[in-house]
Amino acid sequence: MDKETLLLTVAVLGGTGKEGKGLAYRWAKAGYNVLIGSRSSEKAVTAASEILEMLDGGGSVVGTSNVEAAAQANIIVLTVPYAAHRETLESVKGSVAGKLFIDVTVPLVPPKVSKVQMPPAGSAAQEAREILGEGVEVAAAFQNISHEHLLTDGDVECDVLVTGTSKNARQEAIRLVEAAGLIGWDAGPIENSVVVEGLTSVLIHINRQYGSTHAGIRITGAKNK
Ligand SMILES: NC(=O)c1ccc[n+]([C@@H]2O[C@H](COP(=O)([O-])OP(=O)(O)OC[C@H]3O[C@@H](n4cnc5c(N)ncnc54)[C@H](OP(=O)(O)O)[C@@H]3O)[C@@H](O)[C@H]2O)c1
């Protein structure tokens, strides 16, 4: 791990869940200080010890409340179901100024999760930006990566399309994508997140049609280095 990584603390809000736990595991393995956030600190502490067990005790993973995790981190990552999106954003709004915020939320509307249904803001990521305010850099990423990939140590055959409110936000988010062992692509402004979030419903449909559980996408015809 490099010196800069050592100084970075990533809060994973809803990190007790499937996607958040997978990302937390991969970032802790890469040397980041990871804070697992939850509505229940107790639940977060349990999730943190499960991740530490997977890491054989190496790594820095601590469980706390969503609000405390957001306050202590340099980078805040949101991994909650869409039904909890607004409420969780409102709860941490006071702690995000000057930080990078990465939204992983897909605005799925059960029961029709294989049908694209975007919120009035255009996408979950744009809604996050509206709620958090102009002063916060928002990126959106990982919406097409199944948690099943993240909790393993193998290569992931799915790329990550990263959108964001600035080039800097996208580049910082791509750094985290690479730290998680994945390939990230600068996919443009935050408005483009509608396509990436929508792709998740397409992938869910493909999983159902073809009996798979973790279909993904890969960019071809370009080199990202
Ligand atoms: N699972 C995947 O493979 C996958 C892949 C790509 C993107 N995503 C997206 O990532 C996000 C998280 O997915 P997930 O599968 O990890 O979800 P999840 O396991 O169902 O939930 C994640 C966490 O969110 C919190 N939460 C759940 N319901 C809540 C509610 N009503 N109000 C407030 N908090 C609530 C819970 O944390 P506490 O109880 O600890 O607060 C829970 O552990 C979703 O937007 C999903 O679409 C998921």
What does this structure look like?
Helices cover 40% and strands 18% of the residues. The protein is α/β, with parallel strands linked by helices and 225 residues long. Strands 3-2-1-4-5-6-7-8 form an eight-stranded mixed sheet, sandwiched between helices. Strand 4 (75-78), helix 5 and strand 5 (100-103) form a beta-alpha-beta unit. It is globular, with a radius of gyration of 16 Å.
What's the layout of helices and strands?
Blueprint: H1 3-6, E1 9-13, H2 18-29, E2 33-38, H3 41-54, E3 60-65, H4 66-72, E4 75-78, H5 85-92, E5 100-103, H6 124-132, E6 137-140, H7 147-150, E7 160-164, H8 167-179, E8 184-189, H9 193-210
Parallel strand pairs: 1-2, 1-4, 2-3, 4-5, 5-6, 7-8
Antiparallel strand pairs: 6-7
Bound molecules: NADP nicotinamide-adenine-dinucleotide phosphate.
Task: Sum up the structure in keywords.
225 residues, alpha/beta, 8-stranded mixed β-sheet, 18% strand, binds NADP nicotinamide-adenine-dinucleotide phosphate
Number of contiguous helices: 9
Terminal residue distance:
20 Å
Task: Give the total of beta strands.
Answer: 8
Question: How would you classify the helix and strand content by structural class?
Answer: alpha/beta
Instruction: Give the overall pLDDT as a whole number.
Output: 95
How is this structure best summarized?
This protein is of the alpha/beta class.
